[in-house]
Amino acid sequence: MRGPLFYSKILLFGEYGIIKDSKGLSIPYNFYKGALKIDEHKTVATHSSNDALRRFTEYLEELQKRRPELVEFDLDKLKNDVSTGLYFDSSIPQGYGVGSSGALVAAIYDQYAFDKITVLENLTREKLLRLKEIFGEMESFFHGKSSGLDPLNSYLSLPILINSQDHIEPAGIPSQTESGKGAVFLLDSGQTGETAPMVRIFMENMKKEGFRNMLKEQFVKHTDACVEDFLKGDVKSLFGNMKQLSKVVLDNFKPMIPKEFHTLWKKGIETNAYYLKLCGSGGGGYMLGFTEDFEKAQHALKGHKLEVVYNF
């Protein structure tokens, strides 16, 4: 058996903000992918993935008992496949903010859910929200709390525009210009980050009035503007808003930025060579960079690993 491929995703805008109803924009990233497979020889290499799937199956069984109206799985088939050596063969790095658990959740839903909503049918707003809710419940096994957006992106393999918590839609994004000098890129921090502790820090901060005001008046404002600029293809305005967003994150989300990158982050804002933002929950993994001149950014970030995600 070999299941279909599911891709990683990148949340271009909206990390943390979407918890508080900012806009968000998520795009599939086909460079990394994963698929369900069965290893009948049960080799050492697939053992930890198989073990995680066994625990995930127990969780899905509980979820089905708790919310039978939401989703039902072919648990007998899933349990049988897990005992035969089911694992998730994936190139998606874990703890990097590019949706490794999201792709796995999408693959399990695709393979084992009864009455599943398929990509081929007319995806109404109700269906998208239902999928998001199902995926949120499924992915909570990995993160403690999940919006369901990562698996949704992976499952549909379409850019998704988040207007608010209960208003999401597939989005058309401007096509890339291959010869463009500008780029969105991933910057490798060289360390993994864990989502749950970062979300806990954020939730603690949310108890402070000053932080809540900053989130609404600065973070959400600039995030929304960046989403609108990006969708319209207004590069000039996008970089103005990106600079503001990068500043706000550096000033207010320091624990989510690995310490050794604070100076590099500031350097981007001061030189305008690039602007950095969080990719996912932060704490490690990738950071996202935006630049109007990728060669200039490469030079400024010499010695760091960069991967281009999108060309302007």
Q: Give the biggest sheet.
A: 5 strands, antiparallel
* Architecture per CATH nomenclature, i.e. the level-2 architecture of the largest domain: 2-Layer Sandwich
Please write the CATH class name of the largest domain. Alpha Beta
Following the backbone from N to C, one meets helices and strands in this order, namely EEHHEHHHEEEHHHHEEHE
| Helix proportion range | 40-55%
Say how many strands there are. 9
Q: What is the mean pLDDT?
A: 92
Number of domains: 2
Rg computed from alpha carbons, rounded to a whole number of angstroms: 20 Å
Summed up, the helix count is: 10
pLDDT < 50 stretches: none
Give an account of the 3D structure:
Strands 1, 2, 3, 4 and 5 form a five-stranded antiparallel sheet that branches. A four-stranded antiparallel sheet has the order 7-8-6-9. It is 45% helix and 19% strand. α7 runs antiparallel to α8. β4 and β5 form a beta hairpin. With 312 residues, it is α+β, with helices and mostly antiparallel strands.
Question: What are the key terms here?
Answer:
312 residues; four-stranded antiparallel β-sheet; Alpha-Beta Plaits; 10 helices; alpha+beta; 9 strands; 2 domains
